[in-house]
Write a structure and sequence with these properties.
Elements lengths: L2 H10 L5 E5 L21 E5 L2 E2 L5 E2 L3 H8 L3 E5 L4 H5 L1 H9 L3 E6 L12 H4 L13 H21 L2 E4 L4 H4 L10 E3 L6 H13 L10 E5 L8 H14 L4 E5 L5 H9 L7 E5 L4 H9 L3 E4 L5 H8 L4 E3 L6 H4 L6 E3 L5 H12 L2 H17 L3 H16 L2
Parallel strand pairs: 1-2, 5-6, 6-7, 7-8, 9-10, 9-12, 10-11, 12-13, 13-14
Antiparallel strand pairs: 3-4
Helix pairs in contact: 1-16, 8-11, 9-14, 12-15
Length: about 400
């Protein structure tokens, strides 16, 4: 649902887009992720079967057929489907024969510098259930092989498009020139949030009045670390007994988190709202909160909170947090997995209302001037034009 408005916005820049995705309900979509059901598309959408390959990753059996049929000027392809270009070299030959430009689209969160397997000691990789993946000989072999596959593919690519600036640090180690590395940033539908903001401000409260409300928005999966936030909030509650922790989201961890909250001394001050997706409804919760906290993985909810002039507290998310948060200016970074440090950072924000308001204004400035849906769409358009003009 968050990609749909961005694709429409890119189309308005003058791009004829065709989006190829796996058929509905495939496991490439995270647990609890809301899928778009709107038909007001300014882009073409093709759904295709998706299968598990012999090398263990999902692939699209009809990818080459679709490329041949559409014959685009540019192919933008991301993980894990970019691996097909290596294991099915006839696709690369077709791109070269028909002068189709290739852009590799990466997150590129938790991608190690080339040759540095030791990277994973300080940057462990887990799945959404917080199961450690970066361990054992098999993982090390796969990571080593993947480094070389990436290096090979980047030699063939015309550009690298990344949603955070870390790409400018890591891809040169794979031999990619800086002039081929582009950053598009990441953004939800900031225009929709701003369009409804005045309505939200004038609307009656959706929550009881609270001067110190801590807000979390996101799917309730283990790696969002809402459990850590609840643990930290117990410590905040000791100093701010009239504060509240509001949790917006649905997911498989809901019951477990409610049970954790019920055992807390702060149980009466912890509110579970459920999933909320419409900009107006989301805006009401953000407008009535004091600080936004993302204790684990994620990213786009940070952008949304900043639209509503909220300071943000987070740790290691998905890489985009480093582009959005300036420590001490519009929020704070806390030590990863440390409930005490998280609580201390929340208390720092709640203890100084003037500072909190200044931080919120800085959050809004960053969204308006640097990272919003219009800027991200322009960045896509810029990389397309750049590769086509070479």
């Amino acid at each position: 649902h968050y990609n749909h408005p961005l694709l429409n916005k890119i189309a308005t820049k003058g791009c004829q887009l065709t989006m190829l995705i796996p058929q509905k309900n495939h496991n490439t979509v995270g647990v609890g992720v809301k899928e778009n059901e709107k038909e007001d598309r300014l882009y073409n959408l093709i759904t295709t079967p998706c299968k598990k390959s012999w090398y263990g990753k999902d692939y699209l059996p009809k990818l080459k057929q679709v490329i041949q049929t559409v014959c685009p000027d540019v192919l933008l392809i991301g993980w894990p489907y970019m691996l097909q270009l290596f294991f099915c070299p006839s696709i690369l030959r077709f791109l070269k024969k028909h002068s189709i430009k290739l852009i590799l689209h990466e997150i590129p969160f938790q991608v190690p510098p080339y040759g540095q397997l030791s990277y994973f000691k300080n940057h462990p990789v887990c799945n959404e259930s917080m199961q450690l993946l970066s361990t054992g000989v098999k993982f090390a072999i796969n990571a080593w092989v993947l480094m070389h596959i990436r290096k090979y593919l980047y030699k063939k690519a015309d550009a690298s498009l990344n949603y955070c600036t870390y790409g400018k640090e890591v891809w040169p180690t794979y031999g990619v020139p800086q002039e081929k590395i582009f950053v598009r940033y990441n953004s939800g539908d900031t225009e929709a949030l701003f369009d409804t903001k005045n309505q939200v401000i004038d609307a009656p409260n959706v929550l009881p009045v609270c001067d110190n409300r801590i807000l979390h928005i996101g799917r309730l999966v283990a790696w969002k670390r809402v459990d850590l936030l609840i643990e930290a909030y117990e410590k905040v509650f000791e100093q701010y007994p009239y504060s509240e922790l509001t949790i917006v989201g649905n997911g498989p961890e809901m019951q477990k988190l409610k049970q954790q909250a019920e055992k807390s001394r702060a149980v009466r001050n912890i509110r579970f709202v459920g999933g909320v997706y419409e900009p107006f409804e989301l805006g009401r919760y953000m407008n009535e909160s004091s600080v936004y906290v993302l204790a684990g993985m994620g990213g786009l909810s940070i952008n949304d909170a900043m639209c509503y002039e909220l300071p943000v507290i987070c740790s290691v998310c998905d890489g985009t947090e480093k582009d959005l948060i300036e420590d001490g200016k519009n929020g704070y970074f806390f030590k990863e997995d440390d409930a005490d440090d998280l609580a201390a950072k929340i208390i720092m924000v709640l203890s100084n209302k003037d500072k909190r308001q200044q931080m919120g204004k800085e959050s809004l400035r960053i969204i308006r001037e640097k990272i919003n849906i219009n800027k991200v769409a322009k960045n896509y358009y810029h990389v397309f034009k750049s590769v086509l003009n070479k």
